[in-house]
Specification:
mainly alpha; 10 helices; globular
C-alpha cells in the first residue's frame, strides 16, 4: 500500500479528532461561545470541517483495512457525493465567516446584512445538487491513485465534466472571494481607525497595534485557504483535461496533502485566534496539562484584553 495513502489517512484522522474537540468546546457551557453571528459562523466552519474530515478519514481507513474487498456501487456513490458536498459547505462556511467579520464592524444589524449571505447559500445548494446528480448517474471507480479525489466515472462524459467543472471552479472562485473579503475587511477597519481622533503617542501606538493585529489575522486566514485549496483546484482542472498518469506523483501528492491538511488547519486556527475556545479546551484537558498552563489560560480568558475579530 502506498505510503501516501497512510499519510492522507493520518492527516484526516488527526483533523477529525481536533475538530471534534473544538466542536465540543464551542457547544459546551450552554452555548455561551456561540451567541454572535461571528461565533456561529465559526461553529459552522468547524462542524463542516469535522464532517468532511470524518468522511474522508473513514473512507481511507476502510480502504487500508479492506483494500481487496469490492465497494458496493451505492456506497461509493453516497461516499463520493457526501465528501464533495461537505467540502462545498466547508468553503461556504469560510465565506460566511469572512463576511461575518466584514459586517461585524459595520453599523448595520445582523438582520440588515443577512441578505448578503443568501446568494452564497443558494449557490452552494446548487453545487450540492450538481454533485449529487453527477454521482447518481456516474458511480465512481475506486482507483487507489485517485482514492482521495474519488471522481465520478469518466464513462459518463457529461457527468464527469459537470463535476470537475463545478468543483474546480467553486474551489478557485471561493479562494479568491475569501481573499478579497479579508482584504476589504482590513481596509475598512483601517479607515475606521484613522477616523478616530488620537490623543497622544499612546493612542497612535494602540491604533498601529490594532491595525497590525487585523492585518495579521486577515493574511493568515486568506493564506491558509489559498494554500490548502488553490493547488488542489488547479490539479483537478489538469486531471479533468488530461489523463491521471500525466501528472507527476510529487505534484499530485503535494496538492492532495495540502487539500487534506485543512482538516488540521481549520481547528488549529480556531484555537489560535479564539481565546475563549482555547481556554475551554485547556480546561477540558486540565488533568493532563501542567498547572502553569491551566492557570495562564484561565487568566487570559478572564481578562478584559481587547479581542478584535473573534478569531
Amino acid at each position: 500500500m502506498p505510503i501516501k495513502t497512510w499519510l492522507f489517512a493520518v492527516t484526516t484522522a488527526a483533523g477529525t479528532i481536533l475538530s471534534a474537540i473544538v466542536l465540543y468546546a464551542l457547544l459546551a457551557n450552554n452555548g455561551r461561545l456561540i451567541k454572535s453571528r461571528l461565533e456561529r459562523a465559526i461553529l459552522m466552519l468547524d462542524a463542516t470541517s469535522f464532517l468532511w474530515s470524518l468522511l474522508t478519514s473513514a473512507r481511507l481507513i476502510v480502504f487500508l483495512v479492506a483494500q481487496d474487498s469490492p465497494t458496493p456501487e451505492l456506497l461509493s456513490q453516497v461516499e463520493g457525493a457526501a465528501v464533495y458536498i461537505s467540502v462545498g459547505w466547508l468553503m461556504c462556511s469560510n465565506i460566511v465567516l469572512a463576511l461575518s467579520r466584514y459586517f461585524a464592524f459595520s453599523n448595520k444589524s445582523e438582520s440588515e446584512t443577512a441578505k448578503y449571505f443568501i446568494p452564497f447559500i443558494l449557490y452552494f445548494t446548487a453545487v450540492s445538487a450538481v454533485i449529487m446528480w453527477a454521482y447518481a448517474v456516474a458511480p465512481p471507480n475506486v482507483v487507489p491513485d485517485l482514492l482521495v479525489l474519488y471522481p465520478p466515472s469518466r464513462a459518463n462524459t457529461n457527468a464527469y465534466k459537470a463535476w470537475a467543472g463545478v468543483v474546480s471552479w467553486t474551489g478557485i472562485a471561493s479562494v479568491l472571494a475569501i481573499a478579497t473579503i479579508y482584504a476589504l475587511t482590513y481596509f475598512r477597519i483601517q479607515a475606521q481607525l484613522r477616523q478616530i481622533p488620537m490623543g497622544g503617542p499612546g493612542d497612535s501606538a494602540l491604533r498601529l497595534h490594532i491595525e497590525r493585529t487585523v492585518f495579521w489575522k486577515c493574511v493568515v486566514m486568506a493564506a491558509a485557504t489559498f494554500l490548502c485549496y488553490f493547488p488542489a483546484a488547479v490539479a483537478l482542472v489538469i486531471l479533468a483535461v488530461l489523463r491521471p498518469q500525466t501528472m507527476p506523483l510529487a505534484i499530485e501528492v503535494a496538492a492532495i496533502e495540502l487539500y487534506l491538511l485543512d482538516a488540521v488547519v481549520t481547528p488549529v486556527l480556531v484555537l489560535y485566534f479564539m481565546q475563549p475556545v482555547r481556554a475551554r479546551v485547556v480546561q477540558i484537558f486540565s488533568g493532563w496539562l501542567p498547572s502553569a498552563v491551566v492557570q495562564k489560560s484561565a487568566a487570559k480568558a478572564g481578562s478584559t484584553e481587547f479581542h478584535l475579530m473573534a478569531m
